Amino acid sequence: MLLKKIFTFFLIFTAFITFAQNKSYVKNINSNTEKSQVKLLDKNDNYWGLAIGSSVIMPTQKLGSYFKNYNNFYLSLDFSVNKIYTSLYLSVGSPKIKKSSFNFNDTDNDFFNIHEKFSYFEGGLNGGYYLLDDGSCRIAPFITLASATLESNRFKPDMNALEFNVFKSFIAGSGIHGETELFSFNSNSESGKYNYKHSFILKMDVGYNHVFNQKLKQSKGNELYVRFAIVWGIKNFF
Description:
Porin; two-stranded antiparallel sheet
C-alpha cells in the first residue's frame, strides 16, 4: 500500500514537470524573434511570495487504518534566494475516522464513530536547494522541521481538556519541491527608483514526514502528502 501511494505521487510530480516543460516549449515555438523567447523563470531569480493552496495527506501504517486521506488548507511564506529555497508554512484540516466504531483506550470519552472529525494542525519550515533551474521549471529537494497535532474535536470549545490527543509531536521529513511561472507583470514606484516584477507561480510539493512522539502503539504511523498552491511572488526584491 505504501509503495502504491509513493508511485502515485511520483506520477503526479512527473505530470507537473511535463506540464511546465510543455508550457515553456509552446511559448518558445510561437516566438518569432530572439527577443520574444523569454524564459518563464530566470536562473537564480530571487523572490519572496505568499502561497495559498491545498494539501492531501495520506496517513501510513497503523495510523492509516484509523483515518481516511484528508485535505488541508495550506498557507506559506516562501523565499527564493539564488539556489536556496525556504518556506514557512501552516496546514490545517479535519481528518475523519475510517472505522465504523472504535476506541483508543477503552474509555467512554475515547469511543468514536465512523466519519467523526478530528482536528489537525501542522506548522514549520521547509528548506531546500534548487538542483534544476532550466527556465521552464525549478526543482528543489527539501527537508522539513515542524510540529503537528492530531486530536479529537468532540468537546471543543468548552471542555478542551477532555479531547483525545492522537499525537502532539515534532515531525521531520523530506520531499521534492517544483514550481513553474504562470504569468507575470511589472510595477514601478512613483519615484521610478524601484521596479518590481510580480509573478504568479504554480508550486507543488511531494513529501514524507515522520511523526516522532505518538501516544499509542496501535495508532502509530507517518504521513505522505502532496501540495498544490498558487504563489504571488515579488521578484527583484533582494
